[in-house]
Amino acid sequence: MRIVGVIGAGQMGAGIAQVSAQAGFRVLLSDVSIDRAQAGLSGIAKQLNRAVAKEKIAGADRDAALALIEPVEGAGAMGACDLVIEAATEREAVKRAIFGEVGKVLRPDAILATNTSSIPITRLAQASPDPARFVGVHFFNPVPVMGLIELIRGLATSDATVAAVEGYAQTLGKRVVRANDAPGFIVNRVLMPMLNEACFALGEGVATIPDIDAACQLGLNHPMGPLTLADFIGLDTCLEITRVLFEGTGDPKFRPAPLLIKYVEAGWMGKKAGRGFYDYAGETPVPTR
Length: 289
Ligand code: 3HC
Fold this sequence. Notes:
By secondary structure, the chain is of the alpha/beta class. It is built from 11 helices and 10 strands.
């Protein structure tokens, strides 16, 4: 595997492009426009410059990684790739449209992967050119920092596809775990109930936002409290995944907390919206309740 295509140059796509280039792969990075793809590359350059300033990597390594990333326009530019990773917005219709476009140019031996956090792989595979060469590859945010990749096989994914993508993921220096195509896979199946429960606790007046966060951060030795993490992930994303768990299992233990639904309905989606459980207008986040 030499050339990796990444579709979507947002936070996840840019992170995947960055770690792939740092591992020596040539990367084609696309988005809906070449400007967006170029903006993704500028963000990667900023991250790498910061790493050079902190003396985490050498200037030459930054230059080598940046030289390997080529912004391209649209998913149809991925004809040269051995592996294409879709990291577009988490909407099934958008992903299906992308797979249709990539399908027109994908080589018959190339693999198509999706970075979906919760949409069933087997269902998405139906929109791909070949379900045997389709697989889920779930990265975590921030991609350069997080040490895990979940590899999810759909019902029709071939052993050869799983082995090839596992090889790629290990080359990035990440620990790979394999999961079957069940709602939420492993991490979100375990994580989302915790974040959702923190929303229930807040809504029921068990404690304040900073106390819920401090309790879990210090009491469980987590890097972030659950409400901070929910803001970081995006409350809309948390709600969406929780709904997938609830609907996919039919188990009431996964029902979304009313307060989480309310925040999303209010447009308070978390850090990216400037407000979630915290207000991000100033230097330091301020709890909103
Ligand atoms: N991109 C690249 N590097 C980043 C970064 C980013 N966005 N944010 C932080 N970093 C780096 C910093 O440069 C720093 O690197 P260094 O140690 O080499 O200097 C290191 O991460 C630590 O950063 P900070 O000192 O600024 O801040 P913290 O110590 O508070 O760490 C954090 C920030 C790494 C985000 C940490 O709080 C953390 O690990 N939080 C939990 C994140 C998490 O759980 N992510 C998974 C979310 S679930 C998911 O993605 C699945 C999806 O499907 C929902």
